[in-house]
Write a sequence for this structure.
């Protein structure tokens, strides 16, 4: 699981005190570690890679080098996932990182690019309005009009630059990009070339070029990848936290950070409520109770760690402003209901069943049960 | 989850792998330099193997081909020597298992499974093909089973009442006589995980796995391949790996537990680094090893005397050093003295890959028999061939997999292998590659691959000439004991289940039916519907013997086999109703051991099934099972819990499921409604069920609001008494919230009604999740349904009727609901459907006969139906009324003809006047009957009694 769960754009509100960038790029923030790894790295490196695949994996998973340099873990999760991801980049296949929101897709992709190419900035942010120019190239119209079409008038996209320089390009939220725009990637990924018909030229990808895309697998169907494009990717699904404790840890850490930035008073008994929220989320998500004895239906919502964080943060705000400052079941009940019941018909039944079959009979959950019943009515 | 520090691990792994590989290579080259050919063989040829290791199997084949021994000795029970020839027969197809069982007690048994890729099997087939004598040399099953029995008895005493995993031993092939690993797998190849006491320690149970782990491999087969096979050992070098292995084993065995400073061999040093000190071996396991090895040595000596020096031995790698030693004959004999012995029999039984695998539930075995089989059979490029196989499977399942996908998957697997420092991609790499490329990151198709290919659906076959399976013996024994002769002549058998013999007979027949041995078919009982009587039609047909033989794969006793089959069926069942039927069957057949599994599956299915129809279908069978269980004295606690949970789910889901149904679906749902209703009745009628039901039935006569108030008050009363402090408190608050709902004059909640309804049900449930509240909650659900407009008329009517019958709805309320349903605003067809629901069925007519008011409502509505609509509702009404008995129909007709004139519709007034009856009881005329009545009852005419009768 990720150490930091959010997207770079929204992260770390309180860092800009001493003139530093609000959020430095991965290759800058961890420059020392990268340098140490590069110095110690004697294994073969693919063309234009800054590090060998082994060193990249170490950079992500953390470890201690022979000279005692400590590499902090960037991604806490199954080793297998990082290995497959790095291996994919070492072949000429593109990498697609899938996962529900809040599973550190962007984080992993940034650090992979930083470790492989030393540059994580060749980034295309996918939105519903991403045009083809963002992936291929655009024109500097002043030059175009003044001098006619030429290489100088051409504005290369990050992907085009990555191809020309043999770097790693990143595409965020691939499935949010309209399908026809997505498909421009097919030629790039299969032919490794980007034709410029206006000039009768093309840009051929240099060895070392590769592409990391991230996509939200709950958004499938929004702009689902065509099978032709999908075939060009090796897919790695980033899982949700494996154990409840890890998730509680992530949630409480983030809640703490957010809470501090919102100047909410610290909640002394909060950890129990956080554990409860995480338990509810995990049980509904996994479709089975924590003790593994009872199956439950899963609602249509994603119930990701990020949502658990927001439920708890909301609850804290409620407790701070309208309650007695202590996080109580009633403060989180409404938030949980909102997160679980997305589809008013089906999810409500799921939630009712969960309440009746699991929550009602659980030791020490009576107050929570009552709070939920009050808000569900 | 990985943790910081993983890099050290990786480094260690790589170093370890290199070292191991280096060691292997060194030995290989050394041997090659030493000279090749048969002459160089150091007889006896000791081939230490990893049980079920395809790599070992190949190496054994190569070694045998190279050395050409005069006789082959294999680790296994010597009693099987007579059966070995069967292995060459046409009809013998692995996986198969040798089965040894005590003659007098088929439950005491153990299995020696062989897959095609088992080294023992390969050696066996090699010997048979080359006409070389082959013998089994392990401790005879007569001793090992006897020892096992003793041990088990001792353990039983020790634990005293602690349930054994498999008390009659019929179903635990993996646990052999020595209690830690099956005798066929006495050494490596059988992880000790989850199986018996961990006395042996990982080193002893699978030394190759330990070596592999220390070299950084998760899969011992991979390590064997990498360290041994892919080092290019072939031809004359075929014996080299065994030399290296024997050396490593010697080192492992010599080292005393906990001594880490000893580095005789590199492998051992690695074992220390990676593994830590091995767990100290417990005496019994080690002793057993010594005894077994002594026996092996004796047999080896005898074989060498008989066939000359050139004898090959295939045994677990662990035993090789012991066989190399040559203690005196007398020392070995002394070890074997005084071993207990029982009479045993052996036979071959078919086996499956699933049983070889760990996932089969046997706790020990190999994880990937399918993959091993593939490795064994693939002539070259195993990864490419594997990927092609996987692609084929996925295509069959309609996933789009192109050749390009396969190419990419192979590339990724191979690059991953390089990344992980392995000479060739193994199962872990191929699986990762399949997930990333072929399955688009999803685990769902991957599970399919795991199930179908990595484990595989291979079923072994055994020739007909193999001796009878113990199941048949057990059956014969039972038949004799229960005096049930298998006869071809069909006959009827009536059983009174309260008798011990009859009960056992019934269980036997039910178990056989579960096993697909249709000796007896249940017949319609003569004794009516009583639950303690059963009738069977018995007929033994010759082919049933074949069925018995087939069923032998499930276990060695009828009970164990039936349990195993029931569990498997439960897991693979698709429909919820199947599982419930199975649960019922398990109870009938007296299989308490299978019941937990079936119950778990049932609970899971019920939790995930969102079709209330399915749930409603399942409930009655379950409740019936509960009743049967009561009769037969089985423990039905789990069942009751599941049934209650199921009912709860039905309650939650029903209101939503009843909305917006077409007439056919509504009819279907009405059947479900009735089924659930009677099931709930039975459920609530359990030991603790009556009190609350009766209490909640005391709703006041003034409509729903009061009824709710009454139950709310009841809950509050419970709180006051403090019978259940917490439970009552919560229900008290709920009840207060629920009263306004009930007070709603129409009783109709346009939105979210199911929530409030269920909640209202909750309110009247005073003491937690016991069974007592079920009926009350059910009534609440019915009330919600009865009062909701979107529910089909027939269902609303039915609900009202059920409530009325239960006394939960007063006559006034019923009349009000009927008035609503039959008012002018309601479409006539809908109203007719309501009538069908309300007064449909056999007893509905009597209701109308006795409650003139209801009849009047129907009558008024019917006369008000416009002519055009009348034709539409006629079929429905006809269906409703034609179901009544003729007498009822006539009474109704007469009542209607007479018209509503005679009846006074004042509330609470005397009942309607039937034609020919006076409005009041005529006491004098009634008294006139009494003398005759007393005469009939055989009592003297006591006037006090008479006055009571008349007064009432």
């Amino acid at each position: 699981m990720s150490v930091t769960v959010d997207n770079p754009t929204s992260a770390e509100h309180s860092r800009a005190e001493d003139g530093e960038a609000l959020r430095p790029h991965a290759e800058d923030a961890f420059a020392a570690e990268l340098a140490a790894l590069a110095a110690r790295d004697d294994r073969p490196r693919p063309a234009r890679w800054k590090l060998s695949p082994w060193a990249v994996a170490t950079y992500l998973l953390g470890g201690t080098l022979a000279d005692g340099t400590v590499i902090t873990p960037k991604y806490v999760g199954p080793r297998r996932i990082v290995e497959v991801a790095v291996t994919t980049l070492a072949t000429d296949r593109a990498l697609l990182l899938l996962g529900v929101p809040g599973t550190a897709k962007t984080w992993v992709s940034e650090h992979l690019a930083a470790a492989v190419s030393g540059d994580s900035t060749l980034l295309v942010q996918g939105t519903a309005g991403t045009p083809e120019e963002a992936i291929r190239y655009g024109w500097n119209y002043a030059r175009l009009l003044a001098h006619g079409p030429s290489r100088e008038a051409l504005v290369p996209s990050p992907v085009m630059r990555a191809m020309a320089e043999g770097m790693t390009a990143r595409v965020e939220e691939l499935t949010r990009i309209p399908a026809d725009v997505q498909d421009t990637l097919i030629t790039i990924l299969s032919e490794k070339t980007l034709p410029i018909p206006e000039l009768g030229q093309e840009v051929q990808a240099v060895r070392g070029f590769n592409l990391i895309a991230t996509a939200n697998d709950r958004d499938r169907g929004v702009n689902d990848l065509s099978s032709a494009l999908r075939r060009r990717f090796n897919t790695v699904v980033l899982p949700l936290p494996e154990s409840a404790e890890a998730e509680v840890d992530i949630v409480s850490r983030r809640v703490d950070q957010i809470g501090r930035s919102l100047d909410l008073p610290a909640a002394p008994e909060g950890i129990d409520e956080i554990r409860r929220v995480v338990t509810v989320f995990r049980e509904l998500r996994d479709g089975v109770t924590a003790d593994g004895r009872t199956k439950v239906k899963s609602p249509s919502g994603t119930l990701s760690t990020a949502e658990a964080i927001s439920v708890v943060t909301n609850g804290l705000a409620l407790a701070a402003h309208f309650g007695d400052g202590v996080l109580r079941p009633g403060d989180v009940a409404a938030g949980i209901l909102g997160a679980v019941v997305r589809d008013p018909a089906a999810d409500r039944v799921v939630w009712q069943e969960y309440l009746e079959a699991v929550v009602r009979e659980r030791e020490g959950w009576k107050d929570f049960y009552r709070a939920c019943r009050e808000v569900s009515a | 989850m990985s943790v910081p520090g993983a890099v050290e691990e990786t480094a260690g792994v790589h170093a370890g792998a290199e070292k191991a590989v280096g060691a292997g290579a060194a030995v290989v080259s050394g041997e090659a330099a030493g000279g090749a050919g048969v002459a160089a063989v150091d007889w006896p040829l000791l081939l230490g193997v990893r049980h079920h290791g395809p790599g070992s199997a190949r190496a054994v084949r190569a070694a045998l081909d190279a050395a050409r021994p005069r006789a082959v000795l294999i680790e296994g029970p010597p009693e099987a020597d007579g059966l070995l020839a069967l292995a060459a027969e046409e009809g013998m197809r692995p996986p198969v298992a040798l089965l040894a069982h005590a003659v007098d007690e088929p439950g005491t048994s153990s299995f020696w499974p062989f897959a095609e890729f088992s080294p023992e099997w390969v050696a066996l087939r090699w010997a048979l093909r080359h006409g070389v004598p082959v013998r089994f040399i392990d401790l005879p099953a007569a001793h090992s089973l006897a020892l096992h029995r003793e041990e088990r008895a001792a353990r039983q005493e020790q634990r005293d009442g602690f349930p054994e995993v498999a008390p009659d031993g019929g179903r635990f092939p993996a646990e052999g006589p020595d209690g830690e690993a099956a005798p066929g797998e006495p050494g490596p190849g059988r992880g000790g995980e989850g199986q018996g006491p961990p006395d042996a320690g990982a080193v002893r149970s699978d030394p190759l796995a330990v070596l592999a782990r220390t070299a950084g491999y998760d899969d011992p087969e991979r390590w064997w391949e990498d360290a041994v096979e892919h080092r290019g050992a072939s031809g004359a070098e075929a014996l080299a790996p065994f030399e290296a292995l024997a050396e490593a084993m010697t080192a492992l065995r010599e080292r005393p537990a906990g001594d880490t400073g000893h580095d005789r061999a590199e492998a051992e040093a690695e074992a220390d680094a990676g593994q830590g000190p091995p767990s100290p071996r417990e005496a019994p396991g080690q002793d057993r090893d010594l005894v077994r090895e002594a026996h092996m040595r004796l047999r080896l000596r005898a074989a060498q005397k008989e066939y000359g020096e050139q004898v090959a031995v295939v045994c677990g790698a662990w035993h090789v050093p012991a066989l190399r030693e040559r203690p005196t004959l007398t020392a070995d004999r002394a070890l074997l003295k005084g071993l207990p012995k029982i009479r045993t029999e052996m036979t071959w039984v078919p086996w499956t890959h699933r049983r070889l695998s760990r996932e089969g539930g046997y706790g020990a075995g190999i994880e990937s028999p399918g993959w091993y089989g593939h490795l064994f059979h693939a002539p070259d490029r195993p990864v490419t061939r594997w990927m092609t196989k996987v692609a084929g499977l996925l295509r069959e399942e309609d996933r789009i997999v192109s050749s390009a996908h396969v190419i990419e998957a192979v590339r990724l697997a191979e690059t991953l292998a390089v990344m992980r420092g392995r000479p060739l991609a193994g199962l872990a790499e191929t699986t990762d590659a399949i997930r990333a490329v072929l399955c688009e990151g999803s685990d769902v198709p991957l599970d399919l691959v795991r199930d179908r290919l990595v484990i595989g659906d291979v079923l072994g076959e055994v020739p007909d000439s193999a001796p009878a399976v113990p199941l048949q013996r057990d059956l014969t024994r039972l038949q004799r004991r229960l005096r049930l002769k298998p006869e071809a002549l069909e006959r009827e058998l009536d059983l009174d289940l309260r008798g011990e013999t009859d009960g056992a007979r019934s269980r036997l027949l039910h178990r056989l039916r579960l096993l697909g041995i249709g000796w007896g078919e249940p017949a319609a009982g003569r004794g009516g519907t009583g639950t303690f009587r059963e009738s069977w039609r018995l007929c033994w047909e010759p082919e049933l013997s074949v069925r018995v033989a087939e069923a032998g794969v499930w276990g060695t006793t009828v009970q164990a086999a039936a349990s195993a089959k029931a569990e498997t069926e439960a897991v693979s069942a698709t429909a919820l109703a199947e599982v419930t039927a199975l649960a019922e069957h398990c109870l009938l057949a007296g299989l308490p051991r299978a019941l937990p599994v079936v119950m778990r599956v049932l609970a899971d299915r019920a939790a995930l099934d969102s079709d209330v129809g399915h749930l409603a279908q399942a409930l009655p069978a379950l409740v019936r099972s509960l009743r049967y269980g009561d009769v037969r004295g089985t423990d039905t606690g789990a069942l009751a819990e599941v049934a209650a949970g199921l009912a709860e789910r039905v309650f939650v889901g029903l209101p939503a499921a009843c909305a917006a149904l077409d007439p056919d679906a509504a009819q279907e749902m009405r059947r479900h409604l009735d089924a659930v209703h009677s099931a709930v009745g039975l459920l609530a009628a359990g030991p603790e069920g009556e009190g609350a039901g009766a209490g909640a039935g005391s709703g006041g006569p003034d409509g729903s609001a009061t009824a709710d108030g009454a139950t709310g008050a009841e809950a509050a009363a419970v709180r006051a008494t403090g019978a259940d402090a917490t439970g009552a408190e919560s229900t008290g608050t709920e009840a207060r919230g629920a009263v306004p709902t009930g007070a709603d004059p129409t009783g109709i909640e346009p939105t979210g009604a199911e929530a409030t309804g269920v909640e209202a049900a909750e309110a009247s449930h005073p003491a937690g999740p016991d069974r007592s509240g079920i009926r009350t909650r059910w009534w609440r659900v019915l009330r919600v349904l009865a009062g909701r407009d979107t529910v089909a008329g027939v269902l609303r009517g039915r609900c009202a009727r059920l409530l009325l019958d239960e006394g939960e709805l007063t006559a006034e309320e019923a009349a009000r609901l009927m008035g609503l349903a039959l008012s002018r605003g309601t479409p006539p067809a809908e109203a007719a459907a309501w009538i069908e629901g309300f007064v449909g069925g056999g007893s509905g007519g009597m209701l109308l006969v006795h409650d003139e008011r209801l009849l009047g409502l129907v009558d008024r509505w019917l006369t008000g139906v416009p002519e055009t609509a009348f034709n539409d509702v006629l079929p429905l009404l006809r269906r409703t009324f034609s179901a009544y008995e003729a007498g009822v129909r006539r009474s109704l007709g007469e009542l209607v003809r007479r018209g509503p004139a005679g009846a006074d519709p004042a509330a609470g007034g005397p009942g309607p006047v039937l034609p020919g009856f006076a409005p009041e009881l005529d006491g004098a005329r009634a008294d006139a009957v009494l003398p005759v009545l007393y005469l009939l009852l055989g009592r003297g005419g006591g006037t006090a009694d008479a006055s009571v009768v008349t007064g009432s």
